[in-house]
Amino acid sequence: MRWLNIIVVALFALATILFAIQNFQIVTLSFMGFSARAPLALLVAIIYILGMATGGSLFALLRRSIARSRLTAMSKS
Predict the structure, then answer these.
(1) How confident is the model at residue 42 (pLDDT cuts 50, 70, 90)?
(2) Cα-flanking dihedrals φ and ψ of residue 59, to 5°?
(3) Among residues 40, 49, 7, which one has the least CA distance to residue 21?
(4) Is 34's pLDDT higher than 80?
(5) pLDDT (mean) for 41-59
(6) What pTM, to 2 d.p., does this model score?
């Protein structure tokens, strides 16, 4: 199962890199009154990295929460 996860992540990363390479045009990003012009490839890379960071943090938080709830349930028994 671990190898399957590694393969899926590698394929997704490769697809993201290919998308970024093929899309170097300048785009305008607007968010809450803030506007910035940057290459689409740069924005894709930033979003991908932010997604990895927040996804990993969320996964760790959920794992810790489940472990605590199991300890609490075992101590009540």
Answers:
(1) confident
(2) -60, -45
(3) 40
(4) yes
(5) 80
(6) 0.52
Q: Quick one: pLDDT at residue 77?
A: 61
Please spell the DSSP secondary structure of 34-64, one letter per residue. EEEEEEHHHHHHHHHHHHHHHHHHHHHHHHH
Higher pLDDT, 4 or 70: 4
Q: Running DSSP on this structure, what letter comes out for residue 33?
A: T
> Domain limits at 31?
2-76
Residues 6+ apart with CB under 8 A from 37: 26, 27, 28, 29
Burial class (CB in 10 A: 0-12, 13-18, 19+), 72: exposed
And the tokens for 64? 């810790």
